[in-house]
Design goal:
Length: about 240
Amino acid sequence: MRIDIITLFPDFFTSPLSYGVMGKAIKKNIATVNLVNPRDFTTDKHRQVDDEPYGGGAGMVLKPEPIFAAVESLPVIQPREVILMSPQGQTLNQSLLKELAYNYKQLVIICGHYEGVDERVQHLVTREISLGDFVLTCGEIPALALINGVIRLLPGAVGKAESIRADSFEDGLLDYPHYTRPAVFRGWEVPAVLLSGNHQKIAQWRREKQLEITRKKRPDLLAKWEQAQKSNNNN
C-alpha cells in the first residue's frame, strides 16, 4: 500500500514511522509512506499556505492552491481514497480501518491546520475521517492514528496473524484479560484455567470474559453484538 501524507509538518511523522510495526512494515515494503509539504507548492516569495477567512472571524484558513498542487503532483494508484482529517468526518473505528487496509492500494491523507481548510478542497476529497467529537490542534495527530491502524492490518506487518484476529473489536467485543509470568505477583494469581493446558476451557473462559468486560465497559457494543448474533441465527 502507498500512503501519501499532505502535511505542513513532515517532521511530525519522522520518528513514529521509524519504529515498531510501522517502521518494520515500511522497511519490508509492505507499506510506502510519502510525506508531501504543501509549502513546497506555493508560488509567492513568502511561501504562504494560509490566509484570513472571507467574512471575517478568528484564525487562519489553509489556502486551496497548495493543497490541490500537492495532491495533483502524486501518482494515482487505484483504488484510492483522498482523506481529509476533520472533526466533521466519519468516526474512525476498527471496521473502517479494515475497509481502508483491505480495499485500497493508495491513501492520500490531508492534514488540516489552523481554523481548517478552504471548503473547495472538498472537490479533492473522497472521505472525511475524525477521531471523535473533539477538536485537536492539527490533523497530523489523527492522521498518525489512522496510518498506524491501517498498516498493522496489512499482511505481514504483524508477526503473528493471530494477534490481529484476537484484537478488541475484531468480533464486536472488547478483548479478554491477558497474563504472563510470574504466575503470582504481589498475591494476585493468574486464573487457574490459563495454566491448565485445556485449550477448550481457555477459549470458553476468554469468551466469557469478553462478554463480561464488554457488558461492564461498553454496553452499547454488547447490544450491537447481541443484535448481530440474533440476525445471524435468523439467517
